[in-house]
Amino acid sequence: MTVEALSPELETVVANAASATAILAATSPGARASALVAVADALEAAKPALVAIGMEETGLTEARLTGEVTRTAVQLRLFATTILDGSYLDARIDYADADFALGVRPDIRRTHIPVGPVINFSASNFPFAFSVMGGDSAAILAAGCPLIVKAHSGHPRLSDATAEVASAALAAAGMPAGTFQLIHGREAGVAVLKDPRIKAGSFTGSISVGRLLADIAASRPAPIPFFGELGSVNPVFITADVIAERATDIASGYLTSVAGSAGQLCTKPGFAFVPADSDLPAAIQAAAGEPSEHRLLDPRIARSYEERRTAILTAPGVRALVEGGIRFDEAGHGWATPTIVIVSLADFRASKEALVDEAFGPLSIVVETPVGTDLAALVREFFEGNLTGTLHISDAEGSGDSTNTNELRVLVNALSQQVGRVLFNGWPTGVAVTPAQQHGGPWPATTNDSSTSVGTAAITRFLRPVAYQSAPAAFLPEVLQDTNPLGVPQAIAPAGESKAWGSAARD
């Protein structure tokens, strides 16, 4: 790959980030945590003005955007707590052992350090929570890495306004110049990604663009890790027993999950597999009512949705349960109402190429499965990696007292092999911001199936391990010192235990 010289403006940005690397990495956990909290407080203080800009640029509702600012602030505060706890550093100490089972063992101590400057390509569908100061940005800063954000073209004014708030808060908190910077334009983002001073990248968006960027990161003379969250269709499996118990509630929840934010969510349920001849299709029609239309994010997304919707509706065997529709205004914006279609398993299988890919918008497909269908086999037959997989099961099935318990266990195992989060009796939209969350999955859900972009484990993407052997205490990072001045968790392997390894397994 040829690395071209950056423009003067981009050179300044990358040089500033590179210059901040060592200074930022050396900041105390307390200082870095305080800086994240300062950004969170500043965003909430600026919420009315930011939300107003977001409504103009994205068409998302005031309630949705207001809640998203809150979520963004919570993410920042969660990572502040994570920094102070220190568990994410995975500090390990193996004391020197003259009687080690394989000969003399030196003193070895291992922890994690920031990778260096990172570029984050922000998303269109979450203009706060996955944008300038969203989850990826919070994790990058928490890890101690200088951050360059490539603003999304769908909300440039909001990106600038958010960056202004964040920059002021970080500076007031004493973070070094170059800690955070914003750039615009796809070409600028690609140029920065190619620069050898950039040590990692993150992205939320389409499979095509994510793959392009991931390939660029991998083909650099010195490849770097790239963490992309891409496409997902999030299959749902609904049993006959649970339909008999609560068909109305399931239908209502399904429609709400599909229609929320006009279906422009990476966790929207794209497929619902239900027993043939069940009461759920009728319940879905009854629950649909007269839904209000919602503007899609931008004209390009609206046109793509219209094309995808038409392809699905014209596939053989597909029937509309809820017709829905899309209209375009004079500015080219698309306004959509939810579309729910139904198809037999046989027709779904015959039209797989036309139906199985993601429809980014308020559309979902109900697939009727004959009695005795091997649902786990369907997971393997139709789906690659996904962010989520969902099961709706009855009370008896949930207690394990059902004739199909073993079948459901096999289905759960099949889903766990292909998704990052398995849900029971809920809906995948609404990703809880909490330490144990997993928001990732095998390709094409993400470019790295061992990572998450939500939850405290997200910070590990922007760290790398380093071991120190026989190092004098004065040269050890504080987290590896015997005095442990930061009070972080340390996994200690004392001398004299190696010859007992494995003994417990013989009991």
UniProtKB/TrEMBL annotation:
Keywords: Oxidoreductase. Residues 9-368 form the Aldehyde dehydrogenase domain. InterPro entries: Ald_DH/histidinol_DH, Ald_DH_N, Aldehyde_DH_dom, Aldehyde_DH_Superfamily, ALDH_KGSADH. GO terms for molecular function: oxidoreductase activity, acting on the aldehyde or oxo group of donors, NAD or NADP as acceptor. It holds the Pfam family Aldedh. SUPFAM superfamilies: ALDH-like. PANTHER family: ALDEHYDE DEHYDROGENASE-RELATED (PTHR43353:SF3), SUCCINATE-SEMIALDEHYDE DEHYDROGENASE, MITOCHONDRIAL (PTHR43353). This is Aldehyde dehydrogenase (NADP(+)). It comes from Leucobacter viscericola.
